[in-house]
């Protein structure tokens, strides 16, 4: 009987987290399906409308009706027959969508802008950003994402859909006290949700799990991996049951391949890999320059910027067959094998091969430029699919050229491995490899990309080519010492995040630690003195030392806890300014953890000093007559190290155990204190010193160009304004 | 110019580790191909021989020649036409192979026995087992593995092939001083090699990478993952270029599926998942009981045991069509769709469905028994493929039953989703899911299994069913609180390894630490006193404290270092028994790490106190006239914690930073010391206390049965012996 009861308790306790993860997964799947449906409808709306019902997109409008080559039917009406008119309406609608999206984001949820991957990485590593994953962000980002994609801006919905998924995870989990009370547990749920976000964005559940391991989390735990697995599974099953595209496929650009590759193709694969690596390096560098420029000049005009970009993209993009259509659709077209029907705009015809190469090259170059300008603008904007699109146009171009070479010299030695009866070169697979290379180049992830590509195509035989391409891409990136765009953005924004790459500093922690400390003596302080401490905004907390000169370290108290006790005490009115304060922890109680003060002991990262909210739930201490006892709030076991310990080990401690602060003591005496920010400041200073040796400009080439264009534009606008005001005043003068 | 030089240096430094990893990958691929070819030839040899050349296996003997339904041709001669004769030869050859394998292992490389996964996990986590990954083990294990598989024992070659791959990684890397000098770097190479081992065993490069993350390593690092990725890629490309099966496939049991699954099938998938979970739980428990029995009674008869098992397996297995053939081949047969030709022994005929179910059930039950008895016997023996084979026979049985249900009630509501024109149920996919469930159940890994199954079949649509099955399997395992068989074996063997599952102890480290310490005073000790310390084999090293009563902690010296200096000093003859010894570290030098004494600072796990060999490479200290200075060998920055720190955090420190010892100090004073072994001893004591509450017998049911069988057998043998000696003495008496 007791056994049954114990089993039931175990079940309900384990059940709650399973329930939360399932619920989050289901919501993520539903939300992804809605976003997909809305995106398709809005995208089609730029070209025409359905006469059978305005709410139908082109596909459903023409469902089971005879269509022409491009999928149009009688019920689907283009806006106008004239190309110029279509072009105008297309551009106008694109700009309108961008305006709506930027306006909504600016007015209701500024956090909905951008991709969100960088910020979520920081949140998962322990950085607190209130309401970044809130309900408002969730709603606005879900609504504006289809608008942005339909506006044709060169941005993707995959990054933002990770942010949306994490918002869902956060909102759902917050409903349960077990999670809302523990930041550690919340972070686990957010990690799992990020896996589900990638899973639904790419229809790739295992890819999602790997993404959460390779990119998002910096501490690996089997339990978190398992949660991610489950959440991604539930989300994918939900999406698959919703079947938003009515094709049984989970994403638009899912394809399958029949044919195998040949060993001689490896030389072309290497070429594609090099492209991916260079793409990643340059898009990241240029985009950072644009970001610097944006921060300097465009911070006040987010809506204008988004509308201008959408307008420009539409104006130029309309005339290129690969830029005009939706990116997911173009990926599908580029990935597909030529055989088996459904040629798009003569892409497969060898008669049209050179115009097609031209068109693909233009698409690659234009989109490269637009991605650099658009990623980071103040609308939901990811970089996954745009990168894949650029890689795919480049790859397809290479594929067509190789095919043309084969056609003109079929008996050449290099093509000896080709079977004369079946098509030897499949340009679609080159497009796939190009997409993989560009994605890996810009994000600096490898295993995840292989799995995603594999789950998109199911082509067993293309695992090895994909791995070879990514090997080259990664080597090129390593050569340039490039980091992923998410990490670069974290650094650009100055978030406190320790990147995964390992530095070798060869110095002890004593060289980096802060030595000017604001400590609190364990006894003998008066309330006013303690109160003054909390005014300083620079300290997260205060080491407690013995009142004598030896400064033996006794513990650590966070500023939040200090404030909390002070407020409670002031409210209770048992205290006055001369009340003595003691900070002596109770030696009979062991660590606060053992008292059950921090609720979830099994969480590897919930250790004292990290979860700032939890200690607030402790019972209020009774302020005695003339002594206010802070003892129960003092963390007796802050993480301490010796001053000679090497900085690398301290960085590892920060990364693995996640404390806010590490105290440095020598033989019991406090000598310093170090935080993640101190480490980052030191790294930045080191890198600045080494980069100033070489001839790298602080203002990059692109930023210079932009600055000049900005000057010129403002001058133009200024003269127009002057002319307008002159004219209007002269008109007014005449009228008067 | 300087820049070019710097780049070249970077290249050559990075190049060496790339070179080592590539070389290891190539060797692993070649070795896997050789093992595969040898295994197939030996397996076929049990049934017959090739008249065109004894070195050809059946497939190559009949290459491009007309064959009958089972692949036999005129050139391939069975040993005899009579079933009884065939049975005898089959059994005799199986026993011979087992004898050869067991004899080679026993005589030349005892470490080649078993799977090796458990031991490699310990080695990767920092445990030192000399020559476990040596050249001898590599050669003997590579040679005996084909013999064991051909002997028909219910063991697999996938686990051992991981061990073989790790041996190759170790042997190759040891040739380069950069690796042989650093245990941390060696561990990275071994992790990468384990990935390559799985990659070639299953033809699944990404599966291999995930295996190294999920099962092998307990610290996750992007760099190690990338190494694993590269090593697995090289090994797989090599294997693919060798093409051992001449079919373009990397493993025997690779298949592809055309058809999709239906939602109603989920109920049967859940059944398969439950089977997998139960299989894992019971095979692990029973196998541990067999292992206990083996340790007690069979330790002296490893060869007899292996031969007996092989003989029994052959005697019984010969009459079951699924047990008679090679396990990889039977997996291929069971996984295959029925359509598309190549039916094995009427497996696909609905007329034979009930005999087939019977046969599959028998195969499941028999192999279950044989796996329990065979895994752990003193020959190379893995449990991956046997588990998959058991799961596959069970799954195929379920599939055939479901298909029979559909055939008899095609219009039933449950089958409404079936398209009448195409086959609705594909029993082969049930076999695949069964194999996945059993593999996941016994190893307790999930993501890896999904990827491996996916890479075996390329069936995009079967990712979700596989995930659902593994979800159920994992839940069943969790319910029984089961651990993977590798972790159970580690515990059974008492290796110092902290498993990944997270305990909640709620106690401070002071409750677990050792307080009876053998410390060394920093000054004032005479050489004889120091010399005595090294006699105690119980201490890995000694904390250095101030000579006064305060016992302020100054550092830590390992026993190896202490011995080294003592030997050097004795050899130099500058010392006598009253020589004073000092252990005062030089405060001007920072940590030993900063002196470049530990060569590879970027290694996250090469921190002082872990790599025992490196300090030996330091220049010899000059023993002065009457003072022997141990200062340079003292680690100034051992990892220290406060006594109130919770045990969970200490366990995390051990796992993440990998020190041999953690010192416990209170306000600078040394109060205790803790090692991994102390933690494990505590965990074992806790678990023993809680398990003795419940009614678990220390001698399990199976062990009881075995004990009785053993008694009975020894009695029988004893009476036979007595009878024989009586008879012989009476004969001798008569003759005399």
Automatic annotation (TrEMBL), chains A, B:
Highest taxon in the source lineage: Eukaryota
Topology relative to the membrane: Multi-pass membrane protein
Signal peptide: none
Membrane spanning stretches: 18-38, 87-111, 132-154, 189-213, 225-242, 263-286, 298-319, 359-377, 383-402, 449-472
One Pfam family cited in the UniProt record for this chain: Voltage_CLC
UniProt record similarity statement: Belongs to the chloride channel (TC 2.A.49) family.
The protein's name: Chloride channel protein
């Amino acid at each position: 009987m007791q056994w049954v009861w114990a089993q039931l308790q175990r079940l309900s306790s384990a059940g709650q987290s399973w329930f939360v993860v399932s619920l989050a997964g289901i919501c993520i799947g539903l939300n992804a399906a809605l976003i997909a449906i809305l995106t398709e409808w809005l995208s089609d709306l730029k070209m025409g409308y359905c006469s059978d019902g305005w709410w139908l997109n082109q596909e459903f409008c023409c469902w089971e009706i005879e269509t022409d080559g491009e999928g149009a039917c009688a019920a689907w009406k283009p806006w106008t027959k004239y190309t110029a008119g279509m072009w105008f309406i297309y551009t106008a609608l694109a700009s309108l969508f961008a305006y709506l999206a930027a306006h909504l984001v600016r007015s209701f949820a500024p956090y909905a802008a951008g991709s969100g991957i960088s910020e979520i990485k920081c949140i998962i590593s322990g950085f607190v950003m209130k309401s970044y994953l809130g309900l408002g962000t969730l709603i606005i980002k879900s609504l504006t994402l289809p608008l942005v994609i339909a506006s044709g801006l060169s941005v993707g919905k995959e990054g933002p859909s990770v942010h949306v998924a994490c918002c869902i995870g956060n909102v759902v989990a917050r409903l349960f006290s077990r999670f809302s009370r523990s930041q550690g547990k919340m972070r686990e749920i957010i990690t799992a949700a990020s896996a589900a976000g990638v899973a639904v964005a790419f229809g790739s559940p295992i890819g999602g799990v790997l993404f959460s391991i390779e990119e998002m989390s910096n501490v690996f735990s089997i339990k978190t991996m398992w949660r991610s697995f489950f959440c991604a599974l539930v989300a994918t099953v939900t999406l698959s049951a919703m079947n938003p595209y009515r094709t049984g496929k989970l994403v638009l650009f899912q394809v399958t391949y029949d044919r195998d590759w040949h060993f001689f193709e490896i030389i072309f694969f290497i070429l594609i890999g090099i492209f991916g690596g260079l793409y990643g390096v340059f898009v990241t560098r240029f985009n950072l320059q644009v970001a610097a420029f944006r921060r300097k000049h465009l911070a006040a005009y987010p809506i204008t910027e988004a509308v201008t970009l959408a307008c420009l993209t539409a104006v130029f993009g309309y005339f290129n067959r690969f830029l005009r259509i939706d990116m997911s659709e173009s990926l599908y077209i580029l990935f597909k094998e030529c055989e088996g029907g459904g040629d798009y705009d003569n892409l497969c015809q060898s008669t049209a091969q050179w115009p097609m190469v031209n068109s693909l090259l233009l698409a690659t170059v234009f989109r490269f430029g637009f991605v650099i300008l658009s990623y980071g603008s103040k609308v939901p904007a990811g970089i996954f699919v745009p990168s894949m699109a650029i890689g795919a146009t480049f790859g397809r171009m290479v594929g067509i050229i190789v095919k043309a070479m084969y056609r003109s010299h079929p008996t050449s030695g290099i093509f000896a491995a080709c079977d004369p009866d079946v098509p030897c070169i499949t340009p679609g697979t080159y497009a796939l490899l190009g997409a993989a290379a560009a994605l890996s180049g810009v994000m600096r992830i490898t295993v995840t990309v292989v799995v995603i590509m594999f789950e998109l195509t199911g082509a067993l035989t293309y695992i090895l080519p994909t791995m070879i391409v990514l090997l080259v891409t990664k080597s090129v990136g390593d050569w340039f010492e490039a980091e992923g765009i998410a990490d670069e953005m974290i650094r650009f924004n100055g978030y406190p995040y320790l990147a995964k790459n390992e530095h070798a500093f060869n110095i002890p922690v004593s060289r980096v630690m802060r030595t000017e400390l604001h400590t609190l003596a364990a006894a003998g302080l008066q309330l006013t003195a303690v109160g003054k401490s909390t005014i300083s905004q620079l300290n997260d907390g205060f080491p407690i030392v013995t009142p004598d000169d030896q400064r033996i370290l006794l513990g650590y108290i966070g500023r939040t806890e200090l404030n909390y006790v002070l407020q409670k005490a002031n409210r209770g009115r048992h205290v006055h300014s001369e009340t003595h304060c003691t900070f002596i922890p109770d030696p009979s109680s062991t660590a606060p953890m053992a008292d059950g003060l921090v609720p979830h002991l099994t969480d590897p990262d919930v250790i004292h000093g990290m979860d700032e909210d939890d200690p607030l739930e402790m019972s209020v201490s009774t302020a005695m007559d003339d002594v206010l006892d802070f003892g129960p709030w003092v963390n007796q076991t802050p993480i301490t190290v010796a001053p000679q310990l090497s900085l690398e080990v301290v960085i590892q401690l920060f990364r693995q155990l996640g404390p806010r602060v590490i105290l440095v003591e020598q033989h019991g005496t406090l000598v310093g204190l170090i935080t993640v920010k101190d480490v980052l400041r030191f790294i930045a200073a080191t890198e600045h010193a080494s980069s100033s040796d070489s001839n790298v400009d602080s203002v990059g080439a692109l930023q210079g160009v932009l600055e000049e264009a900005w000057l010129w534009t403002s001058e133009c606008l200024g003269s127009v304004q002057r002319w307008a005001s002159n004219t209007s005043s002269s008109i007014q003068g005449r009228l008067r």
